[in-house]
Amino acid sequence: MRRPVSIAPPKGKLGVLTPGMGAVSTTLMAGVELVRRGHSVPVGSLTQMGTIRLGKRTESRVPKIKDFIKLAELNDIVFGGWDPYPDNAYEAAVKAGVLEAKDLSNAEKVLKTIKPMKAAFDRSFVKNLDGTHVKKGKTKFDLAEQIRQDIRDFKKKNKLDRLVVVWCGSTEVFLKAESIHGDLASFEKAMKTNHPSIAPSMLYAYAALSEGVPFANGAPNLTVDIPAIVDLARMKNVPICGKDFKTGQTWMKTLLSPGLKARMLGLNGWFSTNILGNRDGEVLDDPGSFKTKEESKLGALEFILQPKVYPELYGKFTHKVRINYYPPRGDNKEGWDNIDIFGWLGYPMQIKVDFLCRDSILAAPIVLDLALFMDLAQRASMHGIQEWLSFYFKSPMCAPELYPEHDLFIQLMKLKNTLRWMMGEDLITHLGAEYYD
Ligand SMILES: NC(=O)c1ccc[n+]([C@@H]2O[C@H](COP(=O)([O-])OP(=O)(O)OC[C@H]3O[C@@H](n4cnc5c(N)ncnc54)[C@H](O)[C@@H]3O)[C@@H](O)[C@H]2O)c1
Predict the structure, then answer these.
(1) How far is Cα 108 from Cα 355, in angstroms, rounded to an integer?
(2) 172 CA to middle of ligand 1, Å?
(3) What local confidence, expressed as pLDDT, does residue 415 receive?
(4) pTM above 0.70, yes or no
């Protein structure tokens, strides 16, 4: 990828469309409204609260990221979305039960105006849901065409300058890439013949990219991880990224495991289990959707700990992940990790983590950052896979010949260095030898 020659300014309005208007999406929409009205600060959002050091440590140049690189203003965002349930964003947020009534009432007026467009939905991909607010079409290709029309209509109606799409829909059943995903012509033919391995999420991705709109994948679905869609993104000069927002237990895993490795401490086993009771949990109760999530969650440790490079430390560890749908907890997940490690002379030790988290509270600022950074990438003509946004994902996309980078701290360094690189600033290597000349 070449350094951007110029970055178009973020003038005008930015549409943020989410396929899926459930807990994460409505928590984002409500939160942005509360921040706009001065009721809250955007905690958890790197684009809004983060800073970036420029030049030497002695220069004291540490602007906020959003002042260093021009990002769309929160006041210029217009939200929309699709969902197989017809609830507006207020009703959906009440059902999701993430935010308290007093917070929701402050955003109620705006949320009630955000009504979902009919979804391209197929129950065989999300077995535990049964929505009625769905598109009809003879073929999957027809459905994709309808989504394209939705995008055009939304842009026109809201007088938008630009758009981004972030998938906040349910986790679909596990799919493996096959020949019909291998190139654009086969993919389009498969849409027209209703091939069973074309998932609804792929139709949104295809539609967005065809309209020149960036697409970020927040679920562990295959969606944009196929050559046909990667090629389309390149052809249309549009950025894509994914997949599966890195919140909760996997975020914790990518904080702790680099620490173990940094100290060359060994690992015998890592057992993660959690209870959650939101709609996401209900969807993940289906073994097909759970398999998709499990694959996404298992990858991080292997890549960070590199068992092949450190066989004595990480060659034989057991890694188990369990998700349990437990309605009383709603969105307030509790995640337990039992980590069996060993140190000097092989002596065993244990670490126990009990994270009482709130899934959508952790995910909402990630969606905001992704929307703003994907818009930035588009304005800078950075097309195809945006590996610098790995920071936000459990299963980061990368070029086929690379392995994904999972270590949160390397991911953050990569993200900030990408911003410096885009703006022609020196990259920061943390060498610091010049201070001692
Ligand atoms: N909350 C987190 O911390 C987190 C972390 C990583 C990934 N995710 C993923 O983000 C997604 C959203 O999570 P959530 O908690 O908001 O779930 P949710 O169940 O509350 O919302 C998902 C919404 O998507 C809708 N949907 C399903 N299929 C659709 C389709 N084909 N088109 C349009 N809408 C569709 C559902 O009706 C539902 O309203 C899930 O896939 C989840 O696995 C969430």
Answers:
(1) 30
(2) 9
(3) 98
(4) yes
